[in-house]
UniProtKB/TrEMBL annotation:
Its main location: cytoplasm. The lineage of its organism: Bacteria, Pseudomonadati, Pseudomonadota, Betaproteobacteria, Burkholderiales. Keywords: Flavoprotein, FMN, Monooxygenase, Nucleotide-binding, Oxidoreductase. This is Dibenzothiophene monooxygenase. InterPro entries: Acyl-CoA_DH_C, Acyl-CoA_Oxase/DH_mid-dom, Acyl-CoA_Oxase/DH_mid-dom_sf, AcylCo_DH-like_C, AcylCoA_DH/ox_N, AcylCoA_DH/ox_N_sf, AcylCoA_DH/oxidase_NM_dom_sf.
């Protein structure tokens, strides 16, 4: 079997696939608490996502994909994050790897890998982190490379069929970027992901031992300055995280609402018969909703800005790109804060009995806490403050 035709991993014990997004969300929510406790690989749930047709939501229509506008892509990610932010992370990073091929690949690579994603329903893994230089790429005479070393935080790689990879080229001092099948000889996907949250994102490390990269698999060598359009990939990534945060806040608020309506008891000095009539509790829910809807509004605003910029293609200029980066930072700051604060305030709203471990209501805060550490919030506030004070737009970087 050709390694590019390697079939998607399937669970022979998997139950019937939920039909439609709403059924998928119900199925994910039903098992989210138990899967959070277990951690590990969500093979059945990933199969459901594939069967729902979501793997190709960001693949351009010219290659047979859905080609959804960015606001729709992020709305989908956000809706899954409300019930299971780990699975939403996997779908978001699936979209990110598709974008990586789309902006870095030549026409032949785009056709090969994007059409292959549609036809073979590939899950994509991520081993791209140019700051991690432990993976070394040694050039070969045929224009390819040999990879040796390790990468960490390789989200989605376990159970994937293809992966994007960045590696340090010591000859040039720059990273190389490539696409390779996850099953290629010399690749070991390590099951060493065991954080306090986001426990099913398959974000362990990957080891490479003399792994061959063919010349035609090399996507980008950073030898020429990328176009403003190509650098939108970074903002695609940051808005994945932003919408995960918003979804976590929305999910925590909904769980709190359901819990209080079903189990809430009024405080002994409240003077009311029902918890839902307590003015302090009402005020707390009001504040939680304000944080959530504000974060969602800025996330949607940033997604529209990204979509407009994306559709300009090669005509996009640096200033226009900078304004999308600003909108993205503004949205991410608010979403970061909303995810942490709403998931924490859930317990103040629900009370001591809500800490019953089997409920796993703490998963919202744990998932938010793990994800909000991806890059320091202070530097985003700095960028927004610079623009507010002097009109300076954010510089292009690995995070902005």
């Amino acid at each position: 079997m050709n390694e590019l035709d390697h079939p998607a991993a399937r669970d022979p014990q998997a139950s019937s696939v939920p039909h439609g997004l709403s059924s998928l969300l119900e199925a994910l929510r039903a098992s989210a608490a138990e899967r959070d406790r277990q951690g590990g690989h969500a093979a059945q749930e990933k199969q459901w996502i594939a069967e729902a047709g979501l793997l190709t939501i960001a693949v351009p229509r010219e290659f047979g994909g859905t080609g959804a506008a960015w606001p729709k892509v992020y709305e989908t990610i956000r809706s899954i994050a409300r019930v299971d932010s780990a699975l939403a992370h996997l779908l978001g990073f699936q979209c990110l790897q598709v974008v990586s091929v789309d902006v870095w690949g030549n026409p032949a690579q785009r056709a090969r890998y994007l059409r292959g994603t549609v036809e073979s329903r590939w899950w994509w893994g991520n081993a791209v982190n140019p700051l991690d230089t432990r993976l070394v790429a040694s050039a070969t005479a045929d224009g390819g490379f040999r990879l040796n070393g390790q990468k960490g935080f390789c989200s989605g790689t376990r159970g994937s069929q293809m992966m994007t990879v960045s590696a340090h080229d010591p000859q040039t001092g720059k990273p190389i970027f490539a696409v390779i099948p996850t099953t290629r000889d010399g690749i070991t996907v390590n099951e060493d992901w065991d954080p306090i949250g986001q426990r099913q994102t398959d974000s362990g490390s990957v080891s490479f031992a003399n792994v061959k990269v063919e010349a035609e698999e090399v996507l980008h060598r950073s030898e020429t300055p990328p176009t403003p359009h190509a650098t939108l990939r970074t903002l695609v990534s940051q808005l994945v995280l932003t919408n995960l945060f918003v979804g976590i806040a929305q999910g925590a608020l909904e769980e709190a609402r359901q819990y209080v309506n079903k189990n809430g008891r009024p405080w002994i000095t409240s003077g009311v018969d029902k918890a839902t009539d307590d003015p302090y509790l009402i005020a707390r829910f009001g504040e939680m909703r304000l944080q959530t809807v504000s974060a969602e509004a800025l996330a949607e605003r940033a997604a529209r800005a990204l979509d407009d910029a994306w559709n300009k293609g090669a005509e996009l200029n640096a200033e226009e790109r900078g304004r999308v980066a600003l909108a993205t930072s503004e949205a991410k700051i608010l979403a970061h804060r909303a995810a942490l604060e709403v998931s924490q305030n859930l317990f103040d709203a629900c009370g001591a009995r809500a800490t019953h471990a089997p409920l796993a209501l703490d998963r919202f805060w744990r998932n938010a806490r793990v994800h909000t550490l991806h890059d320091p919030l202070d530097y985003r506030v700095r960028d927004v403050g610079r623009y507010a004070l002097s009109g300076t737009l954010p510089d292009v970087s690995l995070y902005t």
